[in-house]
Design goal:
The complex is a heterodimer of chains A (139) and B (191). By secondary structure, chain A is mainly α. In chain A, 47% of the residues lie in helices and 3% in strands. Chain B contains six helices and no strands. Classes of the chains: A mainly alpha (139), B mainly alpha (191). At the A-B interface, helix 1, helix 2 and helix 3 of A face helix 1, helix 3 and helix 6 of B.
Chain lengths: 139, 191
């Protein structure tokens, strides 16, 4: 099955004045099948028991799946440049958020502050040997 | 004769007003979900001990719900295709199938949360669970919102009215799908 991306001018699904975009033929069923295969691989990854493989299959495949959905289902590849700019600016802001805040969260000490040993403790109910239950937040 | 306002193309951007509005909404949604995901990632990296809490999530339930959302995205894009062809009733049926996918997702999520809460894993149980319930809860709220909007658009599409809106709600739904694509490995795989 094939389909177009954004429609040509005066097509039934769009109001008059909708600018024609480059029609792109897509096989949506095939794309969905690829997404499902990628999902299976990401689920199978952890069963190998290799942490690097688990993370690579989980997050690498998540990026690929997100790209495929955005490109083929949201038709981002035939969208106007301003949409690409909007998304790029927002994503850069996310990176800045991470870069600006992450060091304080991930490091154990900084200027005039130091995390105590209790920072990394779990509530007694959630300690590994207790296995479950609920309790107060640890920090 | 009454005037009927339709979305026109914005000359500065070349994009129909409705679609431009949807992309603006999604940019604000990226800030919401991006903030949650980024802060989760940095806290997760800073708290290796959260792995003990994350180990309690069920990979199979998360995988099934990912499959459900991917499939609902397929029906949403097929609804868009039907709308482009001027087949409103088919677009409406496919939109309702998408709503069915959202409904399935929510039922599975409800069962999952019921199991976890009955085991004592509540939002106050620790940092991981706070993020887990907050992120998944906000995402589920967006699923519900998309389902409600789709019902209204499907009712119109059934009468071959406002078919351009089928694409707009589809773009929103695919974004909700993408958010889950990232939540799945973060909450269910990276333990």
């Amino acid at each position: 099955m094939s389909a177009h991306g954004h429609t040509a001018e005066h097509s039934p699904g769009h109001p008059p004045g909708h600018a024609a975009a480059h029609p792109v033929h897509r096989n949506y069923i095939k794309i969905w099948g690829i997404l499902v295969v990628l999902l299976v691989i990401s689920v199978a990854g952890p069963f190998l028991g290799i942490r690097v493989v688990t993370l690579a299959t989980a997050f690498g495949i998540a990026l690929v799946k997100a790209y495929m959905v955005a490109k083929n289902f949201m038709h981002l590849d035939v969208e106007k440049p301003i949409v690409h700019w909007l998304l790029a600016i927002i994503l850069v802001l996310m990176v800045l958020l991470f870069a600006g805040v992450a060091p304080d969260v991930m490091k154990d000490k900084g200027r005039m502050w130091k995390k105590g040993p209790e920072f990394h403790t779990l509530p007694p109910e959630h300690a590994p040997e207790a296995g479950g239950g609920h309790g107060a937040e640890s920090h | 004769m009454s005037a009927h306002t339709i979305a026109t193309t914005r000359s500065a951007t070349g994009i129909p007003t409705g679609r431009l509005a949807v992309w603006w909404v999604l940019c604000s949604e990226i800030v919401v979900f991006g903030g949650i995901l980024v802060s989760y990632i940095m806290h997760r990296l800073g708290h290796p001990e959260w792995a003990h809490q994350a180990a309690h999530t069920n990979l199979w339930i998360g995988a099934f719900n990912t499959l459900v959302l991917l499939s609902s995205s397929l029906s949403a894009v097929l609804a868009h295709k039907a709308a482009e062809e001027g087949n409103g009733p088919r677009a409406a049926r496919l939109l309702l199938a998408t709503v069915g996918g959202g409904f399935t997702f929510l039922i599975v999520k409800s069962v999952e949360w019921t199991i976890e809460i009955s085991q004592g894993e509540v939002i106050q149980s620790g940092g991981f669970w706070s993020y887990y319930y907050t992120a998944a809860g906000i995402h589920a709220t967006h699923v519900i919102a998309g389902m409600v909007i789709m019902c209204f658009i499907a009712a119109d599409a059934m009468k071959n009215r406002n078919l351009h809106r089928v694409e707009l709600v589809g773009i929103y739904w695919h974004f909700v799908d993408i958010v889950w694509i990232f939540l799945f490995p973060l909450l269910y795989i990276a333990k």
